């Protein structure tokens, strides 16, 4: 079953060589195997200690890290952000239970701090996603009720849907992601 995904938004682009030179040695300290190809890094988290998840039983959580050039579309309202992104690093978990969400979230937090990146949550958090009956304001309002009290910054980036309507996804800073990871309703979008 496919798992959650998110992105790390960088203000200065990295090449795959720069990314692997930075991330791969660190990943190899707690992941086995770590496989680098021309497009991505595939790895299995075996030790949650470096991610500060506490004692968890890991049988290897499969993850993928890759470079996206510009995953946002022309209709995405990036003006709400303090600085527009120039590149995204994609992160994806191959499985979809809550432990996979936690491992991916903790890994994203560590990388966001290392790379001074914002986190694109690839959807609205704390909601069920777009519905045919709920408006964006209703759905985003429900998310604000849950997430608004958390520390850090969280932005709603609106975009054009194929149906002609507007919808939104969340982008947060590392401080917000750290608080969201501790929240009892924590999850990522899958």
Keywords:
alpha+beta, 8 strands, globular
Can you walk through the features of this model?
The protein has 190 residues and is of the alpha+beta class. It has one domain (5-182). The chain contains four helices and eight strands. The protein has helices at 16-27, 98-115, 136-147, 174-182; strands at 5-10, 31-36, 40-45, 61-68, 87-93, 118-120, 154-160, 166-172. Strands 2-3-4-5-1-6-8-7 form an eight-stranded antiparallel sheet. A hairpin with a 3-residue loop joins strand 2 (31-36) and strand 3. Helix 2 runs antiparallel to helix 4 (174-182). The protein is globular and about 45 Å long. It starts with a strand and ends in an 8-residue tail after the last helix.
Q: Separation of termini?
A: 10 Å
Q: Catalogue the unreliable spans.
A: none
**The number of domains:** 1
Care to count the β-strands?
8
Mean pLDDT: 89
Oligomer: single chain
The total count of helices amounts to: 4
In one word, what is the shape? globular
Order of secondary-structure elements: EHEEEEHEHEEH
Please give the radius of gyration in angstroms.
16 Å
User: Strand-residue fraction?
Assistant: 25-35%
Structural class: alpha+beta
The profile of the biggest β sheet is: 8 strands, antiparallel
What topology, given as strand order, has the largest sheet?
2-3-4-5-1-6-8-7
The percent range for helix content is: 25-40%
